[in-house]
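Input.
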Amino acid sequence: MAWQILLASLGCVFMASHCAAFEKPKILAPYTKPTLIAHRGASAYAPEHTIPAYKLAIEQGADYVEPDLQITKDGILICLHDVSLERTTDVEQKFPDRSKQMRGRKVWLVSDFTLAEIKTLDAGLWFNQKFAGTSIPTFQEMIDTVKGKSGIIPETKAPDNYATLGFDMGELVMKLLQKNNLDKPEADPKTPVIIQSFSLESLRKLKEEQQCKLPLVFLFGRPDGFDTTEGLKNLKKVASGVAPNKAVILAKPEIINLAHELGMSVTIWTCREGQQAARFPSVEAEMSNFLKAGVDAIFTDNPDKFPRN
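Output.
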């Protein structure tokens, strides 16, 4: 009987270890499940950072929608990826004499235009004729569109540059979130908010000066020492999660475990149909790979391609 008990015990140990090997990766806060973030909205199918792109992202099941934020000349937060307007609007035709020379090319800086001027621009025609007449939304208009339907993960773009113009982007963001009762965790369970930035200093100011209690995520495109335990420990003093470029994770997948061991979530960017890493046959396969590897959330231009099982 003793040997039978011993074999049974060993079998239990084997089964436990076997099951652990196939256990689903643990998802870290602030996420509660493998999370789909619509990158600039459903930007594969509608012009990025427009109301149509945000609405479509929600229709396609986005858990969070991302607005990149810039500041107008009159201090209004708008949703736009670039610090200048020429790539996604007709500003060159509407305001031909308002450009500046930067790095050998003409640019039309957001900070040189009032909101009223920016609202005259067409932000949809560049993408497709059917979106002609679409305007750049304010952050408030984005919130009005998304609130109660999806989470919001704003990115503060070039906050340090705007600081030289006298704008405190973090303060503007927190004031607007407070106005909409979104400035605290669980303030609106249907609309969780995470703030992200490539500027660690701006995240520090949000935490220390603005007393921000929302989850903060630090974005980085290159390892630069952030892919080590020591580097991540330093980041954790400010941020509750990290968001490396997917290439960083492909080169060093152990970053996921290093971050998780410190209680930090891992979000990756950006998965796009037709631009997946060569080893993957489709963007769905690429995203599935990252989810199986344990990342908590994924930015994608293709919300409809996100694996749900």
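The radius of gyration is 22 Å.
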